[in-house]
Design a protein that fits this description.
alpha/beta; Rossmann fold; five-stranded parallel sheet; two-stranded antiparallel ribbon; 10 helices; about 45% helix; about 15% strand; IstB_ATP-bd; ATP-binding; ATP-binding protein
Length: about 290
Amino acid sequence: MQSPAPTTADSPNKTTAPEPPASRSPEMSSELKMEERFETLDCPTHGPQRVRLFRLFADWAPARCPVCEAEQEQARSDEEAARQIRDTAEHRDRLIRKHLQHAAVPPRFEGKSFAAFTATDSSSAKALATCRSYADRFLDHLRTGTSLILCGNAGTGKTHLACAVADQVIRNHSKAAVYMTAGRAFRKVKDTYRKNSQVSEQDALSAFAAPDLLILDEIGVQYGSDAERNILFEIVNERYEQMKPTVLISNLALPALTEFAGERVIDRLKENGGKLIVFDWKSHRGAA
């Protein structure tokens, strides 16, 4: 008896032809086809314009004058640029007002300017020029941590020039400048020694490093104790390590100032081109 012929399922050599790919409907193909054409548009502003039109679906895009569209786009771009400038100017004004509010400059020295400083001889004229140059180039000094020391006779305009520097640092460079007497700075640190103090000594010292420029006035009026000398060093050193400029003001002559503040303080303030200005002319106070 003959065996029955194998079925398709039983034939190992039988191959199945792949199904043909599904074809897109004519409606789908026409929807994805983009057409284009050219028209002449009579713009009331720019006259006849040759316009390229496209159609992706059923309707043609409306004809618009390309010159008008370019002008409108430029107007939008100009308005955005103007808005950014206004926003930047407003932000700068707010920042300046904030810095002026927190500068703590005494009322007697508020708004002091270089123009209001009277140079009576070549030495005072040189001091004025040095402080003005320091203020003009403050952003460079901020990068290098370059400081100033103003020392010498009382009544010669040291605080005036230092506050003029601070005023320009705030108004021209939008940077923070803070004025403080050494006595007040020492008290801020000593207050942390109280048992119930909520602020640590390190917190107080770190706060001195916050402003871009710190002016410490009346160095040498205090007792000159080891504690005060150590606090002054810690304040200056905190700013020195953070590359923050400091202006030190004292009525002491340089040798006495060095003895009071310590050589480490003076050396740090003179590093990276720090300037020392000796005010050795007569007092302006009481002058006619």
